[in-house]
Amino acid sequence: MGVLRELTVQPGFGRRLRRGREDAGYTAAQLGALVGLHPTWIYELEGGRRGEPTLGTALRLARALQVSLDWLASGAEHDPDAHVAVTAGFRARRTAS
Q1: Which terminus of the chain is more solvent-facing, meaning fewer CB atoms within 10 Å of its CB: N or C?
Q2: From CA 61, how far away is CA 69, in angstroms rounded?
Q3: What is the 3-state secondary structure (H, E, C) of 5-70?
């Protein structure tokens, strides 16, 4: 089996990133601190003023936001009401009631 080295990002990545960040209750500064990015970089990515993120960056963002990489990259397979589990060393920010 090959190693995934590239990420294909579908239109709307920035909107999904912002939605995931807001749903998780993070500011751009908080998310940036979790994933090692400057808040301005987060805002530029959300606003479509940055190119596609690397696979590693997208994976760190997805883990921090507790969303799937598939959803963040393409919009597939995301249930906003699903329970947010604690994974990859990040603390969950919300749970479904």
Answers
A1: N
A2: 8
A3: CCCCCCCCHHHHHHHHHHHHCCCHHHHHHHHCCCHHHHHHHHCCCCCCCCHHHHHHHHHHHCCCHH
